[in-house]
Design brief:
CATH architecture of the largest domain in chain A: 3-Layer(aba) Sandwich
Radius of gyration of chain A: 18 Å
Strand order of the largest sheet of chain A: 6-7-8-3-9-10
Number of domains of chain B: 3
Helix content of chain B: 55-70%
CATH class of the largest domain in chain A: Alpha Beta
Number of helices of chain B: 15
Order of helices and strands of chain B: HHHHHHHEEEEEEEEEHHHHHHHH
CATH topology of the largest domain in chain B: MetI-like fold
Number of strands of chain B: 9
CATH superfamily of the largest domain in chain A: P-loop containing nucleotide triphosphate hydrolases
Helix content of chain A: 25-40%
Distance between the termini of chain A: 36 Å
Structural class of chain A: alpha/beta
Number of strands of chain A: 10
Oligomer: heterodimer
CATH architecture of the largest domain in chain B: Orthogonal Bundle
Number of helices of chain A: 9
CATH class of the largest domain in chain B: Mainly Alpha
CATH topology of the largest domain in chain A: Rossmann fold
């Protein structure tokens, strides 16, 4: 279970990205965070694995205080939290296999990994992960030779290497076309059914309706909605996205 | 009434402008125009005064008058084009005279040009393979009471010189047999210290005598007047040598002596370029990190290091490696080593700057992603930073090697070793066949290197 209490993040330039956010996520939830660009979604996700240091507030994961963890504890926590990104964040010049293997760095022998030596079982695991996302044949290609959808699948495979119990997905489909978006989210859905808690930020409301078990809405760093996807009606929608907003359906694009 | 009041003002303005250019414009509140006019006339005046040819003052006077006209025509002013044309005309005119432009010189000295271009059309790189047939005999100079007999057989060539000894400018008769028949034979004189003297007319041409069809030869020579020039004691009788040399082609080509020097010089140049690039690259890596803005932010100490390293890199980079080479030649002496040092330092500064730009341009996304997997800092560097910087670093380093090969040819001119050193010597002694051979070799090496470094860089980036 993940518990976020009074989380606030103020950037050095004075921008308040998150303002007193509190919520809980039970194991096995598929939580979707919605909100406009700049509403604090990315900051929220990055505070959970401390890629960004919160200014104040607490985050507990299974009663471990993430916000107070020492650097080595943070690394141990991070290795159980997978993360995928809007821009995939693959090392473009490295092979697909190396990108996937790097998901195992938190578990690997630090010195052997620095030499680029990986145990056979990790290599097997990496190939299995690639098989699972359907691109095992691309293992030895450079990552930047792959299409966007394929790159995101490498991102998922990299996260799978961590045997994650929680997966953070920061706009995983915002750079992909709608058809690919569904195929990526279906992988997340499948993982969720296997017991991985998912926290995912999304733009398209129909994707939210289709995949989320629960939704949190952010506006200017403040939590303005917390409930079931079916509860997001027109009024709620305007509240989150502002009066000017028009709903765009991914499927209709 | 306006007219009555404006009239004196105009006169005042004109007078003030005449006194100090630009003043009239300033008084009419256009201080920018006034300053420009003042600077234009001041620079023109300074240039003409420095150059010292009075005729050019006409340009200044016209500019001065234009300035008065301009002041009177304010606020619209006089046409600026006129002043600009006047100023440029003066600058170009003086510039033309200062650089002593003389296009005719390109055509009046055809004889000198030919003496360079003709040998350059026959680069001294290869020569026909030749076989040598040589014999010698010792002749005593000056004569002692009992000179040894001047007769000797070397490799079946039998030579006899009569008389057995000679004083300066005395006539000797050389007879020989056992030479190749009907072949030109070069006769030369060698002093005991190894100086070779020519025996042809005026003692500055080779004496060449044809053998008869049985390989015999006889010739009259004179003991060269300079045969004792370098002798410590000219009265001491010493053995000098008379050489008979025949050569004939045996088919095929081989490297000439100068060709061998060219090869050696090119090899030296490539090696010194390679070594200086390697040393420079190794030193540039830490400097590149220290000069990368994105890494050196935050702590004031880091910012200080960044500013210092950046500044030093920029200063060193602006010093031409040729100047560094001159300094190092003075410190460590002639040869490839000072050239290597100069290039290594210049390379360090240049690559340090380029590396820092690569580091500043790395994509932070993968760093974030690898950190999110629970990797430690070293693992983040190994898996997210190094893969991003190694290919561009390598490409830049290869490109730098390319540049260094070109620079090191020039560095040889100041004693920094390599092909440039030989080239400079050849230019000095006027051996333009060797000069042309080294030109061709340099061009070939640079072109080949250019091609391969481009190919290699294409694959890396």
């Amino acid at each position: 279970m993940l518990r976020v209490e009074h989380l606030t993040k103020v950037y050095p330039n004075g921008t308040v990205a998150l303002r007193d956010i509190s919520f809980e996520v039970s194991d096995g939830e598929f939580l979707v965070v919605i909100g406009l660009s700049g509403s604090g979604k990315s900051t929220l996700l990055r505070c959970i694995n401390r890629l960004i240091e919160p200014t104040s507030g607490k985050i507990y994961w299974n009663d471990i205080d993430i916000t107070n963890a020492s650097p080595s504890e943070v690394r141990r926590i991070r290795r159980q939290i997978g993360m995928i990104f809007q821009q995939f964040n693959l090392v473009k010049r490295s092979s697909v296999l190396t990108n996937v293997l790097s998901g195992r760095l938190g578990y690997a022998n630090p010195w052997l990994s620095l030499l680029g030596v990986w145990p056979a079982e990790d290599r097997q695991k990496a190939l299995r992960a690639l098989e699972r996302v359907g691109i095992a044949d691309k293992a030895n290609q450079r990552a930047d030779t792959l299409s966007g959808g394929q790159q995101q699948r490498v991102g998922i495979a990299r996260a799978l290497m961590q045997d994650p119990r929680l997966l953070l997905a920061d706009e995983p489909v915002a750079s992909l076309d709608p058809v690919l978006a569904h195929s990526i989210l279906q992988y997340l859905e499948q993982l969720n059914k296997e017991g991985v808690t998912i926290i995912c930020s999304l733009h398209f409301l129909d994707l939210v309706h289709r995949y989320a078990t629960r939704v949190i809405g952010l506006k200017d760093g403040v939590k303005v909605f917390d409930g079931l996807p079916t509860e997001i009606d027109r009024a709620r929608f305007k509240e989150i996205y502002g009066e000017e907003a028009q709903e765009v359906r991914a499927a209709s694009l | 009434m306006d007219k009555a009041e404006q009239q004196p003002t105009k006169i005042v303005i004109a007078l003030l402008s005449l006194l100090l250019p630009g003043l009239g414009q300033v008084l009419q509140r256009d201080w920018k125009r006034g300053l420009s006019v003042f600077l234009a006339i001041a620079t023109a005046l300074a240039t003409v005064t420095w150059y010292g040819k009075r005729g050019w003052y006409i340009a200044v006077i016209f500019l001065w008058l234009w300035n008065v006209w301009d002041a009177l025509k304010m606020p619209r002013g006089a046409p600026v084009v006129l002043a600009v044309l006047l100023w440029l005309g003066m600058a170009y005119g003086i510039g033309w005279q200062v650089t002593q432009v003389n296009p005719m010189a390109l055509f009046t000295n055809t004889e000198r040009a030919q003496s360079i271009i003709r040998p350059m059309l026959q680069p001294d790189f290869f020569t026909a393979r030749k076989e040598k047939h040589e014999g010698w005999v010792e002749v005593q100079v000056p004569c002692s009471a009992t000179p040894p007999r001047a007769e000797k057989t070397v490799e079946e060539i039998h030579i006899r010189v009569q008389p057995d000894c000679g004083n300066l400018n005395e006539t000797l008769i050389v007879t020989a047999d056992g030479l190749w028949p009907s072949a030109p034979t070069e006769i030369t004189w060698m002093t005991p210290i190894g100086d070779v003297k020519l025996l042809g007319p005026g003692n500055n041409q080779m004496l060449v005598v044809e053998t008869d069809n049985e390989g015999r030869l006889s010739a009259v020579i004179q003991v060269p007047g300079s045969a004792l020039a370098a002798a410590p004691d000219p009265t001491l009788p010493l053995p000098h040598r008379v050489y008979l040399t025949q050569t004939r082609p045996i088919g095929g080509m081989t490297l000439s002596t100068n060709g061998q020097y060219v090869i050696r010089g090119i090899y030296e140049t490539l090696a010194l370029a390679l070594l200086s690039t390697l040393i420079g690259a190794i030193m540039a890596i830490p400097l590149g990190f220290m000069a990368a803005r994105n890494l050196m932010g935050g702590h004031p100490l880091l910012v200080g290091v960044y500013v210092v390293v950046r500044t030093v890199l920029n200063i060193v980079r602006s010093i031409e490696s040729l100047i560094l080479a001159i300094i190092f030649v003075i410190i460590v002496g002639l040869g490839p080593f000072p050239g290597m040092l100069a290039l290594a330092i210049h390379t360090t500064a240049a690559l340090g700057k380029l590396y820092s730009e690569v580091i500043e341009a790395i994509d932070p996304g993968p760093i974030e992603a690898i950190r999110a997997t629970g990797a430690n800092n070293l693992q983040v560097i190994r898996y997210a930073v190094i893969p991003q910087i190694i290919p561009p670093f390598t490409a830049l380093t290869i490109y730098r090697w390319d540049i260094n090969v070109r620079s090191s040819t020039i560095i040889g001119f100041v004693g920094g070793g390599g092909i440039g050193f030989f080239l400079y010597q050849w230019i000095l002694i006027g051996d333009f066949r060797a000069v042309s051979a080294s030109f061709i070799a340099i061009a070939a090496v640079v072109m080949i290197l250019d091609f391969f470094s481009a190919k290699l860089r294409e694959r890396l980036v």
